[in-house]
């Protein structure tokens, strides 16, 4: 989708919102159809659980409807929606606190290599290509992401899986761009460290 | 180029934002350093896998399921509910069309003719036209000493010596022995003492550091001052908002911040100096709410004060005359900027009741948007981390007499 089409879509979103605010509930279905895939996939990447993602996605849309009056068109509707999804995911993890620290532990145990980012014995690119099929690496990466601390997980999901810009991520997470950048920087390091370790363990 | 510099630029390369100038040196380093080459390969591989990852299809019946829940909720009915919402629209449209460049009105505009009202009516009639642009908002009218402005597009602090028009998101700071006087076209005034920093927002200001004095002249005017851990929202009021850094030795600071790995190419010394000045860069904001103490002092009329605490969810927790509300940072240890969601912000700003009729009794805010518990006046200050005390009689103008231009 080029940027022109995107901005047309944003204007259209806004028209639909105005329509809903004038009492046309059914128009909300257009927004649901338009964004359900993105919403669902973000929730899924964050939680790794189809059922939970369904619940979160539905709840996100219902919440958005209830708060629609407060939509500020200075921001993209999709950003607002994803912000709601992200908040719900944060709530979800908060209620079950067990899940998001493991990668930190891995980092700490290999702290030296992590701190400098270079001292660990590297698995060379070729080695990886030969030893691991891309599919297996993909599945390792999925595990790695699921174990990232939540703050880092959300930036990776939004940056790479949704291909959003720093600016968009910044407005979704309510954080300055510098912070987003620093988190992505660190998240990549974590993913790399995790994968290197897993690959060399194999 | 050393390996640290390489890694920083490598991230830019992966994100396709590496400058052309830097490209050759990145390539050169990667050829020379096996370890960095390896990192580079890993990063590109991670990216390529993630980008090519296929999206899941949404399970069937999703839209119907959402819509059945929506249908159980009441429909919106225009236009009464829309009015507060559209206040923002006017500004937002103006901002997007005019590229954040606001044409300022002269400072002698009759304050009784608010420029906000016509915008509301136009927006309610769905006239999202260009006639809504060019609404004056805030002027910087008097400067004493060294005052600087940070505009987003200029990326650096620049000295200000004369009257200028401000845009949303502009940051203003005063250095030592300096002060500045700002005035909205409706007469609302702001004054900053020395070593202060604020940011202009569409709904008021963010106070980063220092003391700001605020006089909201018009009833029905919505204005809020937001510190990292407090929100003060008013109609027709004079009040102070103050943010002070906790004193912290440089060594402690260094250890704490280094652990968090927050530096991105800035030396800790520079960071600390900027931090102490309140000249926070973007990265600094992350640790912000943990190291500041904010307070609001009310001189006249009423101010609603809420903590930006997750437990109270930005709710109004107190109301009254001559009170001081302090947000002790101890209560906000785990608070990060990400906890301050749009929901908190909007439920706060949109639900402040109209102060046109000044009742003495405690008010409870009606809000459907936020499902958090409503906290009536003067209850639960301790649980919310906000303490209320009687303040001494102070003339808020005392310290600003020197910069009266008018």
What does this structure look like?
The complex is a heterodimer of chains A (202) and B (406). Chain A is an all-alpha fold and 202 residues long. Chain A has two domains: 3-95, RNA polymerase sigma factor, region 2, helix turn helix motif (Rna Polymerase Sigma Factor, Chain: A), CATH 1.10.1740.10; 102-201, Arc Repressor Mutant, subunit A (Orthogonal Bundle). Chain A has helices spanning 3-21, 28-47, 50-66, 77-95, 102-109, 111-116, 125-131, 134-147, 150-161, 166-173, 177-201. Residues 99-123 of chain A have low confidence and may be disordered. With 406 residues, chain B is α+β, with helices and mostly antiparallel strands. Chain B has three domains: 3-52, no CATH class; 75-132, no CATH class; 138-399, Sandwich (Jelly Rolls), CATH 2.60.120.1440. Chain B contains ten helices and 16 strands. Chain B has helices at 3-14, 23-32, 34-52, 62-71, 82-98, 116-124, 250-259, 268-277, 342-351, 381-384, and strands at 138-144, 147-150, 157-160, 164-166, 171-174, 179-184, 189-192, 197-201, 204-215, 223-226, 230-234, 238-245, 292-300, 303-307, 323-327, 386-390. Chain B has a 16-stranded mixed β-sheet that branches. Chain B is flat and about 60 Å long. Chain B starts with a helix and ends in a 16-residue tail after the last strand. Mean pLDDT of chain B is 55; it is low at 78-136, 259-266, 273-290 and 309-406. The interface between A and B is large, with 74 and 71 residues.
């Amino acid at each position: 989708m080029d940027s022109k089409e995107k901005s047309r879509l944003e204007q259209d979103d806004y028209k639909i919102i105005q329509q809903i605010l004038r009492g046309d509930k059914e128009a909300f279905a257009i927004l649901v159809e338009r964004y359900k895939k993105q919403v669902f996939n973000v929730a899924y990447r964050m939680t790794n659980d189809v059922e939970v993602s369904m619940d979160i996605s539905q709840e996100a849309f219902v919440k958005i409807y209830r708060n629609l009056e407060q939509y500020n068109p200075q921001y993209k509707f999709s950003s607002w929606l994803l912000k709601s999804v992200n908040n719900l995911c944060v709530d979800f993890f908060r209620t079950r606190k067990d899940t998001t620290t493991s990668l930190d532990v891995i980092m700490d145990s290999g702290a030296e290599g992590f701190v400098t980012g270079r001292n660990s014995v590297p698995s060379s690119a070729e080695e990886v290509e030969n030893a691991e099929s891309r599919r297996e690496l993909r599945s390792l990466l999925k595990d790695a992401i699921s174990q990232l601390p939540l703050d880092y997980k959300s930036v990776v999901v939004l940056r790479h899986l949704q291909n959003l810009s720093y600016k968009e991520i910044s407005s979704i997470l309510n954080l300055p761009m510098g912070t987003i950048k620093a988190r992505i920087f660190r998240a990549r390091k974590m993913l790399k460290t995790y994968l290197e370790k897993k690959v060399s363990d194999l | 180029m050393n390996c640290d510099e390489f890694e920083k630029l490598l991230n830019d390369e992966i994100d396709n934002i590496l400058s052309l100038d830097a490209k050759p040196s990145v390539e050169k380093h990667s050829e020379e350093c096996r370890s960095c080459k390896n990192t580079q390969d890993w990063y590109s591989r991670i990216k390529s896998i993630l980008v090519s990852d296929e999206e899941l299809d949404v399970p069937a019946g999703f839209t119907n399921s959402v819509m059945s829940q929506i249908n159980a909720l009441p429909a919106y009915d225009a236009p009464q509910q829309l009015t507060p919402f559209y206040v923002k629209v006017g500004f937002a449209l103006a901002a997007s069309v005019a590229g954040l460049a606001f044409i300022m009105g002269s400072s002698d505009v009759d304050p009784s003719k608010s420029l906000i009202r016509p915008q509301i009516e136009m927006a309610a009639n769905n006239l999202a036209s260009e006639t809504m642009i060019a609404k004056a908002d805030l002027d910087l009218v008097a400067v004493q000493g060294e005052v600087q402005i940070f505009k987003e597009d200029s990326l650096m602090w620049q000295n200000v010596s004369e009257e200028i028009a401000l845009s949303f998101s502009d940051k203003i700071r005063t250095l030592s022995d300096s002060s500045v006087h700002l005035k909205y076209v409706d007469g609302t005034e702001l004054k900053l003492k020395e070593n202060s920093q604020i940011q202009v927002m569409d709904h008021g200001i963010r106070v980063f550091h220092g003391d700001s004095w605020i006089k909201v002249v018009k009833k029905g005017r919505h204005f809020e001052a937001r510190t990292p851990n407090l929100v003060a929202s008013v109609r027709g009021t004079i009040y102070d908002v103050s943010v002070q850094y906790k004193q912290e030795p440089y060594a402690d600071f260094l250890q704490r911040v280094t652990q968090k790995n927050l530096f991105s190419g800035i030396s800790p010394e520079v960071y600390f100096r900027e931090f102490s000045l309140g000249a926070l860069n973007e990265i600094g904001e992350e640790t912000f709410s943990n190291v500041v103490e904010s307070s609001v002092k009310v001189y006249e009329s009423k101010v609603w004060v809420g903590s930006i605490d997750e437990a109270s969810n930005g709710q109004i927790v107190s109301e009254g005359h001559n009170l001081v509300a302090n947000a002790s940072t101890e209560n906000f240890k785990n608070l990060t900027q990400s906890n301050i969601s749009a929901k908190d912000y909007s439920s706060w700003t949109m639900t402040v009741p109209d102060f046109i009729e000044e009742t003495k009794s405690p008010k409870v805010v009606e809000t459907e948007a936020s499902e958090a518990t409503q906290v009536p006046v003067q209850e639960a200050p301790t649980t919310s981390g906000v303490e209320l005390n009687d303040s001494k009689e102070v003339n808020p103008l005392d310290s600003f007499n020197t910069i009266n231009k008018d």
